[in-house]
From TrEMBL:
SUPFAM superfamilies: PP2C-like (SSF81606). It holds the Pfam family PP2C_2. It comes from Jonesiaceae bacterium BS-20. SMART domains: PP2C_SIG, PP2Cc. GO terms for molecular function: protein serine/threonine phosphatase activity. This is Protein phosphatase 2C domain-containing protein. InterPro entries: PP2C, PPM-type-like_dom_sf, PPM-type_phosphatase-like_dom. Residues 4-234 form the PPM-type phosphatase domain. Residues 245-265 are annotated as: Disordered. Residues 251-265 have a biased composition (Pro residues).
Amino acid sequence: MRPPWGAASHVGGRRKINEDSYLAQSPIFVVADGMGGHQRGEVASAIAAREFATLSHFMALEPQQVDACFERAATTMRAMLPSGVGGTTVCGVAIVLQDGAAYWLVFNLGDSRAYHLDTAGKLTQISVDHSVVQELIDAGVLTAQEAHAHAERHVITRALETLTAPEPDYWLLPIAQGDQILLCSDGLTNELSDEELGDIWRSTTNPQQVADNLVQAANNAGGRDNITVVVVTSDAAPITASLGFEVTRSGPPPHPPLPPQTRSE
């Protein structure tokens, strides 16, 4: 019997410290990619992971609980880090129940990513990067291929940090039997194309093996950054019960961009 989820993280081939953190414990799964240098990114991502871990004892969650975690993590970060120094991306998925049906509540802040793989093997990127290059792509100024070499490819426009309130985006997707969700830091997607990612993902049905194989492939391709992958299958979701809550947001709300932050190379 395959496990319902899998996770792997590696420092990569060039960094001395792994500033990524992750959480893999149903009903909440998170990847956080810290930034700031001098171990501040490591602290920031760990704060996020620890805060979301407080939700792991529930059978399923309400969207408001996820929002509250972002707020508490930001408060803790302001208390523990110098103002304007350090921060982290946060990308995750929570299992929520509505009218007896299970849903993926995907959330994102920054440029870590969430992907969906259906039973037909179709790969879809759910999250939208909060980055300068993504804004240029959306405006038709850059192609996705050109973005990989752009001078501002590491500049993100939203993050969990000390100066501004967190403004994550949310997506709500019904959970179908056989569905899978993949969360990853940009240490994976900067090394592998979506086509390569999908081929490796489809090569095995074991989520732990998928996570391990993707991390290894990213290291083999250069390993220029920390690499973290969490894979969640529909087996992680309960199939009955209703918590009777209302989802307040089901897509990316129109937020103004935050002051840009730049990752360390």
